[in-house]
Known about the structure:
By secondary structure, the chain is α/β, with parallel strands linked by helices. It has one domain (3-243): Glycerol-3-phosphate (1)-acyltransferase, CATH 3.40.1130.10. The chain has eight helices and nine strands. The chain has helices at 3-11, 13-32, 42-50, 84-94, 111-122, 143-152, 200-224, 235-243, and strands spanning 34-39, 55-57, 76-80, 99-102, 126-129, 156-163, 166-168, 176-178, 182-188. The strands form two sheets. Strands 1-9-6-2-5-3-4 form a seven-stranded mixed sheet, with helices on both faces.
Amino acid sequence: MSRSLKSRLLDNEVARKGASSIAAAYMWFVHRTTRWETRNGDIPQAFWDKGAPFVLALWHGRLLMATFAWDHRQSFCMLISRHRDGELISRTVSRFGIGTVRGSSKAGQGAAALREMIKLVRSGTSVGITPDGPRGPRMRASEGVVAAARLTGVPIIPLGVSVARRKLLNSWDRFLLPMPFSRGVFVWGDPIVIERNADDATCRTAQLQIETALNAVTNTADRLMGHPPVDPAPLAAATASAGN
């Protein structure tokens, strides 16, 4: 689909509503026809059992089926970009009872969203963030995820998602489109805590720690499903993007 046609469709209210309905129906169909397993599920369960919020982190390219990893008895909101694509994602996940905060995960571009996330966490609601969203570089953590964990005062828990039958789209994030009648896996990682008084050097270290942990759980999920890992964007591209 050309960018201009895609933009026209996403600008149309009826088209957006129809697209979100189709996307949600497809997600349900894939979920119901896939044999799912969860690795390290005791990690988020310990938080859910106590009603304790946390920041869920996953790569943008693995966003589609992540809603089914969540215990929907627990309140949850996802940080979604204000881009047209974000509007479609927001409408789709809302059909699964997931709220959204509109903004960016990049430092300096999501102050209002960050304030809203702090309020949500203080009320006991967990929040989700894609540290490489909304436009990359792929599988490189932005400073925003560190700020979210430091200012909310709750741990970050990484999540990896993969399926055996899939198509990786030729997009900046290599978006994973799952096929039905397959196997799938959710892989949770250990919590990462960032102290409120962390200095700049500590925050930079934490940023790399989050990126490494997210790549580890995502690569593990892919290997379990018989796929080679997806390479992150080259460091040179990541550095250039961070400077823009």
